[in-house]
Every structure is written in structure tokens, then in C-alpha cells.
Amino acid sequence: MIILFSANSFEHLYKLRIKILKNFQKQGFEVYAVAKDDEFKTKITELGIKVITININPHSKNFLKDIGLLVSYYKIFKKIKPDILYNSTIKPNIYGSMVSGLLKIKTINNISGLGTGFLKSKLLKRLIIILYRFSNKNVYKIYFQNKEDMIFFEKEKISKKNQSTLIPGSGVDTNFFKRKTEFSPNKKTNFIFIGRILKEKGILELISAFNKFQKNNPSKLTIIGSYDPENPSSVNIKKFIDDVDLDQSIKYLGVKKNIIDYLENSDCLILPSYREGLSNVLLEAMSMKLPVLASNVPGCKDLIINNNGFLFEPKSVESIYNALKKFASLSKREIIDMGKNGRELVEKKYDVRLLLKIYQNDII
Predict the structure, then answer these.
(1) Percentage of the chain exceeding pLDDT 90
(2) Distance between CA atoms of 250 and 248, rounded to whole angstroms?
(3) Which end of the chain is more exposed for a tag (fewer CB within 10 A), N or C?
(4) Which residues pair with 84 in a beta bridge?
């Protein structure tokens, strides 16, 4: 059997789907990965998975230029003849499905969030819905990472009930995201933010709220994440770094490979995102027994249900500030218990092995 995974980037496939690709490979299936070229292409190749580079610009809104993407998908799918296609991210979900429908390839799309187009422009949102509706009508299944996205797709007649499947996000490897030492909060609280440096991640509101908070509550904020100058949602990186440098209590470290070490040395993860599919970074922090603070939005609020953290209102500096104050008022025992509650929730509902079973059942 030939199984093909398609996404915007090899980074996406490596960070969020590699366990699934390796699981299929272990069973003797021929596994391909198709995405835009990046440094993670080599990492996937080294695992023995076949890779094909495609020219895809996830930020371009010129749909006429995407005709070339359709042609590329057609040539690749026609040549490989996959038995099943798994798409992730918006353009592969739309254009990959158009081509797979034409070639009658069994296709499963993964909706890992609605994208910034849904947050910014009503016209763009309408156009994306039309494209989704057209391209997804014949796909075998559509995986959703939160219930609200699934309801939205069904309401907009993009997905039928017999297509829709709610999955536990991208899953988290609880054997890897596991503490080396027992969690014990630092005397000087160390908050951590992990994510792309985008406006929609709420990073600017977070910095404003934290600067206000730490005046009376000595603490640290560590920021880890990539900056993409091609993404129109990226913040002004020079101003961002200048603002961070003004206060030594905030550290921006850029991209880091050893994320698990930073989680191990933190006390609480905070994610002020405007919307998520199902936040992987929250799952990873919870698996490490960290309490979490997050926006009361789809993809975040789904995970803070077990006295494992606090929610605050999105885009609100004041609400983030109040959540920071609330966390600071907790006792050491309360913080440790919150962390344990998060770990228990991940083990029960979001372990990657639960996700592998879903993928496994759908190849039959």
C-alpha cells in the first residue's frame, strides 16, 4: 500500500505527523511526504521516508497563481498513485483534494485550525469556504481537532456528518514529554510562551500584560518561537526585540531545539492565541505537568477543563494580567496539583497512541 502525506512544509509533517508516518512505515507501507522545501526535508529523508518537494506559498492569496500548484499535485499523484492521501494545512486540504477527487484517490483531510484568513477578512473567509465546499465534497473523511470547527464546517455544508471525525489533535508522546525530575515551582516564577511570533498568537498583548504584572510580582517570561518575514501576520521584529530588550525580565530566545529542557525549567506556560485547532504546545506543557494559562477560544479552552490552568479573554491585556495575578496567588501545592491534573488529562485523552489507532482504522 502507498500512503502519501501532504502539507505546507516538511517542518509541519516532522513536528506533528512523524509518529504516524513512522508507524505506517514500520508496517511495511510505502510512505511519501510532499511539501515545500525546508531544513526538515533531510530529517524525514533520513528516516527512510520518500520526499517530494512542491512549490507552495502558504501566505499567497493570489488564487490564480495556485493553478500551478494544482498542476504539480496532479503530476505527483498521477505518478505515485497513492492508495490513500492525508492532507494537512489549508492549501493541501483544498488543492490536494481537488486533484485527488479527479483521480479518485481515497483522501482524508486534517483541519488543524481555520487559519488567519478567517480572522482577518470576511471576503477571504467567504472565498475559502467556497473552495473548501467544492474540494471536500468527495473526500473520504475530514479530521477535526476541536468541536467548534467541526460544527462550523457542517453548518457551512463543507463537511457531512458521515465525513466528520473528531480527533485528539496531533497527539502528544507522553513517553517523550515527561519530566526528568518532579515538578517544583521556582521562587521567582518563570512563565514561558512557545509559538510563532505572530499577532494572532497574542504575543503583543502578552508582553504588555507581563510588563504591568511584573512591576509588583518579580518574575520571568521566556519567549521561544520562529519569526517568518514572509508571513503578513508577523510582528515588526525589530520593534519586538527592542521592546523585549528594554526589560531583562523578558527573554526572546528565537528557535530552540531542546524545548523539553525549557519546559522542565518553567513554572507555567501561557498561550494568548486568538484561535487554535487544538494547541500542541498546551498538550506538551500539560504532559510535562505544567499548569497552563490560555485564551478562552476554540483549540485552547477544550484543554483547560480539569483544574489544570486558567482561561482569559482573547486580545485583552487586562484579562491576561488578571490571569497572571491569579496564578501568582496560588500556593506551591495548588500549582503542583494543577500540573498533575494536566498530565492525567493528556494521558487519558490526548496520547499520540490514541491517534495512531484512528489513522490505522481508516486505512482499511
Answers:
(1) 75
(2) 5
(3) C
(4) 3, 106
CA angle 91, 55, 5 (to 5 degrees): 55
pTM: 0.90
Give kind and range of the element (H or E) at residue 211.
Answer: helix 203-213
Let me know: does 36 contact 8? Beta carbons within 8 Å: yes
Bridge pairing between strands 164-166 and 30-36 = unpaired
Q: How is residue 176 written as a grid cell?
A: 517523550
In sequence order, the 6+-apart residues with CB closer than 8 A to the CB of 23 are: 356, 359, 360
Own/partner contacts of 173-178, CB < 8 Å, gap of 24 or more, are 173/19, 173/351, 173/352, 174/287, 174/343, 174/346, 174/347, 174/351, 174/352, 176/260, 177/260, 177/263, 177/284, 177/287, 177/288, 178/287, 178/288
Tell me the mean pLDDT in the region 163-186. 93
Instruction: Report how far apart, in Å, the C-alpha atoms of 282 and of each of 28, 37, 290 are.
Output: 33, 27, 9
Residue-wise pLDDT for 30-87, tens only, equals: 999 999 999 999 999 999 999 999 999 877 777 777 899 999 999 999 999 999 999 9
* Predicted local distance difference test score (pLDDT) of residue 57: 85
Contacts of 41 (CB under 8 A, 6+ apart): 10, 35, 51, 53
C-alpha Rg value of the chain to the nearest Å: 21
Strand partners, 110: 88, 143
Residue with more model confidence, 215 or 61: 215
- The yes-or-no verdict on residue 116 having pLDDT over 70 is no
Backbone angles phi, psi at 42, to 5 degrees: -65, -40
Chain mean position to CA 348: 20
